[in-house]
Design goal:
The chain is of the alpha+beta class. It has ten helices and 17 strands. The longest helix is centred in the middle third of the chain and has 35 residues. The two termini are 35 Å apart.
Length: 393
Amino acid sequence: MFNVIESKNVPIKAWTNGVPVGDSARQQLLNVASLPFVYKHVAAMPDVHWGSGATVGSVIPTKGAIIPAAVGVDIGCGMMAVRTSLNARRLPDNLHGIRVEIERAVPLGSAVHREITKRADKVWHGRLQAEWIEIDKRHPGIANKQNAAHALGTLGGGNHFIELCLDEEDRLWVMLHSGSRNSCTRMGTYFIERAKAAIGDKTLVDKDLAWLSEDTPDFDDYVRGVGWAQDYAKHNRELMMAAVLDILGDHWPSMTSDDLAVNCHHNYVQKEQHFGETVWLTRKGAVRAGAGEMGIIPGSMGAKSYIVRGKGNPDSFESCSHGAGRKFSRTEAKRRITLKQHAEAMKGIEARLDGGVLDESPAAYKDIDAVMAAQADLVEIVHTLRQIVCVKG
């Protein structure tokens, strides 16, 4: 159940029982709730933590306006998971070779494909390319059309990952987390600045809460861009998934993937109906959890993850958390967590154990069990997954 936090405008309903919320995140929630166009209330998920402008792990319904910084710059970022026919007993004891193959097949960090892949070429040359050209015509400088095509099927960095997991029946799953890559980082940053310019001299408690008003050209172009980014991100995840399944298929030719596949966004804005009104609903680090809808809630790189089914709770605007949520900032995590502690937390999982991933170490994140307990009225757990291979960007 939720706690209610009162603000100067609408209240905040926070699913944070048993989960710590920092003072900076609480203040950001109050800042957003104070805006005059926020409708009904703001919903805070149990993984809520500080973000740029608005907290990660918040659901913000608005009427007549959208806050680009609340959507963020990794527009369309989300998760995908596919269950395979493989069982744990068919896997080798040493999975290092599999991890290396995945890292070779899927460019990591800022890397892109040198040449556009055949699968990506089929996806790009059509509506994706045409829409991107139109966006660039209206807003020159956003697009880098060649780079966008070559980045399809690439992971990115930060908290993005590809994992092999086992469920409660020891069935093998492929799960990954990524978004729309640098193309939409540029788009998000561009429209955040356009919103600040549109607000002009108005005093804001946080300049990153500048908004675009409905029925303006920038608003319409931004909504179009967000829709494009969501499509791009979805295809990006599908292309990476296909590459990983190809690797597994080479090792186990009889392997199949079944109908249980989930592909969901958790950084986006779209029109939805809530409490009898049509609103613009921003989910920043939150997953749609309508009644019967499937979603993915990952823990950290060393903790369990969950395939869930939404309960359609109206108070959360039919949403749930998108993960465990950060306990420490990246800088603080690197200061606090040692390589020895990281290696201990990752025991039994084939993964990087170097200093470059200390900010993603399990200790940097909240307790996923506490997060799941706090949102028991938002989702039901369908499958519990445990990692055996983790590839980080």
